[in-house]
Amino acid sequence: MVKKIRHLIAVLIIVGGIVLVCYPSFASFINQQFANREIADYKNEMKDSSEEELEKTMQLAYEYNATLPGGYPADPFTGDNIANLKGTKFETFWMVQAEAMLGYVEVPSISVYLPIYYGTSEKVLDEGVGLLANTSLPVGGNGTHAVLSAHTGMASKKLFTDLNLVKEGDIFFIHVLNQNFAYQVDQIKVVLPENTDDLYIEEGKDYVTLLTCTPFGINDHRLLVRGERIDYDFSKNDTIAVTPKVVVDNYLWAYVTGITVVLILFIGFWKKKRSGRNKKTE
């Protein structure tokens, strides 16, 4: 009876360990499927919108960005980050309403494919990437600087966990309305949260900065990965179709590895138990 209890405890420990190891990958996989669905719905909505409607929205976005040079970007992880637009022509503009989905971002080098929302509220940062208020809407143009922020090290979501693996020269993509924008990483910095000098707009420059906490588990600094707009032929490089498959494949490999480990441990335990029984019969 005592041996059976020991065997049961051993099995439970093994199973529990496997669950702990596999949970982050499994949870990330499920949450990535939700993100993929959000992006697919957004793309369909843009396809159903008229050219006139999209052009009007884009023009408003340009006008909004033109009002920002005096704006002061704040740290996204110190509370809700929403611009005060009361009394302005943008008060009812949907793109600058709290938690509105603006588009989506792709970082192929680290298999990131996530929706972009306005603001950096707790809800936004729990679901995807947030645009810092008082930074440019990510619609391109000289004299703009959009800052996109997401968490690192969440147990159930990958988000910007691998942003530290991005290198200078890597290319990432922003998709807003029916427009696609490509940015090449030209600067990577680690700064204190209160140091926002590298988030300001520079005259004549078209920047997007990807921002997250660092180092993992401590999060007392900010990692800034800045990209500058480049020309890119999207007709020959369909990144939109490739990235979701890469993301899914990475998680499937994690599942296969986890299941293989479980089978090896189970077979080893079963053989050991069977060997013990054979010795008893001898």
Question: Explain this structure to me?
Answer:
- The chain is α+β, with helices and mostly antiparallel strands and about 280 residues long.
- The chain has a domain at about 50-245: Sortase (Sortase, Chain: A, Beta Barrel).
- Helix content is about 40%, strand content about 20%.
- The protein has helices at about 1-50, 50-65, 120-125, 240-280, and strands at about 100-105, 110-120, 130, 145-150, 170-175, 180-190, 205-215, 220-230.
- The longest helix has about 45 residues, at about 1-50.
Secondary structure: elements and pairs:
Elements: H1 2-48, H2 51-66, E1 101-107, E2 112-118, H3 122-127, E3 129-131, E4 144-149, E5 171-176, E6 179-191, E7 206-214, E8 221-230, H4 239-281
Parallel strand pairs: 2-3, 4-7
Antiparallel strand pairs: 1-2, 1-5, 3-4, 5-6, 6-8, 7-8
Helix pairs in contact: 1-4
What is the CATH architecture term of the domain at 52-243? Answer: Beta Barrel
Number of helices: 4
Give the termini separation: 21 Å
The structure class reads alpha+beta
- The CATH class of the domain at 52-243 turns out to be Mainly Beta
Taken from the alpha-carbon principal axes, the silhouette is elongated
Biggest sheet: strand arrangement: 1-2-3-4-7-8-6-5
Question: Could you tell me the strand content as a percent range?
Answer: 15-25%
CATH superfamily of the domain at 52-243: Sortase
Provide tags for this entry:
alpha+beta; eight-stranded mixed beta barrel; 4 helices; 8 strands; elongated
